Amino acid sequence: AQSVTQLDSHVSVSEGTPVLLRCNYSSSYSPSLFWYVQHPNKGLQLLLKYTSAATLVKGINGFEAEFKKSETSFHLTKPSAHMSDAAEYFCVVSDQNQAGTALIFGKGTTLSVSS
Amino acid sequence: GAVVSQHPSRVICKSGTSVKIECRSLDFQATTMFWYRQFPKQSLMLMATSNEGSKATYEQGVEKDKFLINHASLTLSTLTVTSAHPEDSSFYICSASSRLYNEQFFGPGTRLTVL
User: Fold this and answer.
1) Interface test with A, best of B44, B54, B111 (most A CBs within 10 A)
2) Which residue of chain B has the CA closest to A34?
3) How many CB atoms lie under 10 A from the CB of residue B8?
């Protein structure tokens, strides 16, 4: 069985300050892990993915995440928040890095960015 | 990346009628397509997985006779909500994957409102 827990339902930051969105996972197999972003009334966009290569994964728009097996974590970070980063973020896990495997979504974290 | 489209983007229907939602992979052949449902301010819940040419596999609690899924070709899957009721109102999102791409690509979603 696999699952993912996003530890914060809502994170608020000021523009220009760092962003940290926390995610812990549980998987019986070597997991593939993803972060997706969803802006209001728009589709899901892949920010980054971990697939058993480098543990520090760099994504789009300055985001990155570090896979820590000992802590079963895959936290998303960004050094400096921008107003356009305000959105819903989902941490996602799948058991195997295979195209036909279903994704398991976390409950999501709403990121608010104030000026 | 690959592109997945959904049609319609929004649909409003009367209770008791059926609604068909199309999911198309525009520039690749999708061996597997997934259908998700997202309630307001909640995460995506997998409804079913469909492989081209075979019957869909439904998640526990999803009525297969109510949510008919057809994956007749490598570029098209359809979800038909039969005898829709107001509680079926939701955001339906499809994703598609193939052996060529080692990830899923999401459509923009379809917002269904049942009056």
Assistant:
1) B44
2) B103
3) 13
Strands A64-68 and A19-21: unpaired
Residue B105: Cβ within 10 Å count: 22
Q: How far apart are CA B90 and CA A115, in angstroms?
A: 32
B87: tokens are 């509680």
**Nearest 5°: phi and psi at A51?**
-135, 50
User: What is the C-alpha separation between B64 and A87, in angstroms, rounded?
Assistant: 33
Q: How far apart are CA A99 and CA B50, in angstroms?
A: 12
pLDDT in single tens digits along all 115 residues of chain B: 688 999 999 999 999 999 999 999 998 898 899 999 998 878 899 999 998 888 899 999 999 999 999 988 899 999 999 999 999 999 999 999 887 776 788 999 999 999 9
Interface check for A7 against chain B (CB to CB < 8 A): the answer is: no
